Known about the structure:
Layout: E1 14-16, E2 20-23, E3 30-39, E4 44-50, H1 53-78, H2 84-100, H3 104-109, H4 117-120, H5 154-159, H6 162-235, H7 239-252, E5 263-268, E6 273-279, E7 289-295, E8 300-305, H8 308-333, E9 341-351, E10 358-369, H9 370-374, H10 383-389, E11 393-394, E12 417-418, E13 431-432, H11 438-454, E14 459-463, E15 473-477, E16 484-491, H12 499-512, E17 516-521, H13 527-533, E18 538-541, H14 543-552, E19 557-558, H15 561-567
Parallel strand pairs: 6-9, 13-19, 16-17, 17-18
Antiparallel strand pairs: 1-3, 2-3, 3-4, 5-6, 7-8, 9-10, 10-11, 12-14, 14-15, 15-16
Helix pairs in contact: 6-7, 8-10, 12-13
Amino acid sequence: MAEIVIHSNNIENIVLGRLTARWNASGTRILRYYLDVRHTAMNLHRELSAPEIFILQSKADALIAAWDEKYVQHRLRATLQSGKSSAEDLSAAAIQKLDGLHRLLAYTLSVNDAVDWDALKDRRDYPMPKHYERSKPQFEEGKPPTYEAPAISWWSKLTGKAAEIEAKAVGHYRERVTSWDGQEALRRVVHEKEVANWQKAHDAFWTEHEAAKIAFLAGQSASNAKVDGLIASLATGDPEAVVEHATLVLEASDYDGLFEKAYAVQYQPSDKLLLLSYSLPSIDDLPATKSVKFIKATGELKETQISDREQKANFEAVAYQICLRTIHELFEADVDRNIEKILFNGYVDFIDRRTGQPARSCLVSVLVDRPAFEAIDLSRVDPKSCFKSLKGVSAASLAALTPIPPIMEMAREDLRFIDAQAVGERMEAGANLAAMPWEDFEHLVREVFEQEFRLRGGEVKVTRSSSDGGVDAIAFDPDPISGGKIVIQAKRYTRTVTVSAVRDLFGTVMNEGASKGILVTTADYGPDAYQFATGKPLTLLNGANLLHLMEKHGYKARIDIREARSLVV
Length: 569
């Protein structure tokens, strides 16, 4: 599977989850890719999805770029030094942020919300090296020996030995020349081998880059062709293309880091109706600082907050503006006119102060048709009055977080769910759970827990199997006290389950917004796994626990780890 490449100025704080894919029913084609992205320093998390890798890469690039800008402000706040000038700068920035809350709608009217298709295309040149990094070996000629004439005394000349002495000197010189020639010949042989090796590596280097360039251009062409394919599909009103186009528009909407966007989109082609479930920022997410003063006596910076009344008014203004702005952006970007109606349901996630538990309320809901909306001059409206004129539904006070029934509900089906298989009926009595296929093991665990929750009126659904520690099943327990959404992971292991698997489960519970997580294995857990689970909404069931639960519901099975190790690859 292809990979997503992240480019960030603070890459050490970016954590990518596993790139996953949802396949079609026959398992022959990938329908959608999914990627979890986290920013550890700012404690941010987003799940991105797209039908194509290149679109997912584009979304990841946009998200990381936004997070990089946000992290600059995060570090500025973290490292801010005291002083009057800092206080003045912070006060100015605070005022600018508060004023910006009332310009959210006006901002989008000044930009073209149409998707920049060309920006999605890869126009890069292949990074062909300018030269081979290693220089060609050069042969340096050695310095040949020189003839040094012997000193001949007058006595040697007188006695006739001069010729003999000179002959010996010439002989020694010739011997040195012969030796030097031999050494030079050997050096040339070594040099020629070095040149040959260099030439081989040089040719291989450029051959590899030429091949890589061909592959790069082919991949680039295929990626760009997919963009063209998406454009063509959008022109014909293909439902998947309409939804993907809408997500591109929503992702491109710039709120200057005000909140982390989260939404779900559906499309009904028969009515040309786009349904949108949008997570609005909570009142606590909005800026509340009015001014910052430098306290000379203590050297501290003291923030002054706006009043609760002002904060509630800002929250209401932001909610109505986001609603109108989002509808405007989707209609304006829809140049193929695939959308004639838009349903906008705005939700807020918050902590219920009565129970201390996470809660989610629908605060605004409106169904608007295109002609009516396009007839409005958004630059001159009061957002709340405009919303009401469109027959939108909202609570009397949005800040009270009182939920209202949406005008229309979006489909709640989780596309990860697949049809359950009745494994227990065909399982032989005394079957070794540790040696059965992992797909069957996951379905069997689902069956057991389905019977466990059935008495409470609950249900258990199996998610698309991945054999890698993903969500294997989700239980919905209606019990008002101990129930809720429960993540169940099944691991048919023949080795001790490490703490990393328990950490993964806890992360999944948080991401799913579940109340509890259950990890089931045919083996057992290490001490660090049990220690990590202590104090968290996690239950660890080992092989003995699983057999007891199965026996409770009439299943006869066994777990033989040694036998399984010899059978399971």
